[in-house]
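ARCHIVE CARD
Drawer: 12
Card no.: 0347
Subject: one protein chain, sequence and derived structure
Cross-reference: see card 0346
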Amino acid sequence: MRLNNRVAVVTGARRGLGRVIALALAREGADIAICDINREDCLNVVNEIEQQGRKGLAIKCDVSSQKEVEELVGSTVKKYGKLDILVNNAASTDFKPFLRLKESEWDKVLNTNLRGQFLCSQIAAKAMIKNRWGRIVNIASICSSIGSAFPLMSHYTASKGGVIALTKAMALELAPFEINVNAICPGAIDTGLIPEEMIHRMISRIPKGRLGKPEEVANLAVFLASEESEYITGSAIVIDGGWLSA
């Protein structure tokens, strides 16, 4: 119960990594507000959270919309009285050659992956400042400025590189308010979203010889959301089975 009596928001939590992170935070005692573009799917996750004895709240939210993010944070604080933890997980990508990438496709990925993390962090931090305690965990990627670029993903790579830079800048400004800001940089994680034809090629590059499990990323998110990470801020922590070391 490392997060007992804490309140967390997890974006992009209707499925995949976001869902697993939300459930992991709940198991450690947090009450959770989960958001995604489909509220009906979020309700299924809320049921899982409540089965663990915690409170859950499902909210439809496009993280690239300031108005909807303000409603997300406002609804969370109204229900729970505060906000302690934000996990910026919502993300968008597709696979497209750089020379055929349309401006609209670039904008969609950057708006969700980078603008969304900026908006959610800024609005959530204002709520956290009132209690002078907070944890912001940004989901970045090894496909970014610190790691390997992947073909067909120039827009995604740029967005996740921006997330790491934003994480470091926010950490500097929010430290005086006892708000820690860190990024998790996963490698190839088995969320069911990786195209089948890419999996074997990825595994051949990973010293651990397998894809990562969503639960392994969630465990790191729990640690960064807890008191145990008190002296860690501004870090981009890689969890990739040794990919970048190979």
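Annotation on reverse: The chain has a mean pLDDT of 96. Helices lie at 16-27, 39-51, 66-80, 103-129, 154-174, 196-203, 214-225.
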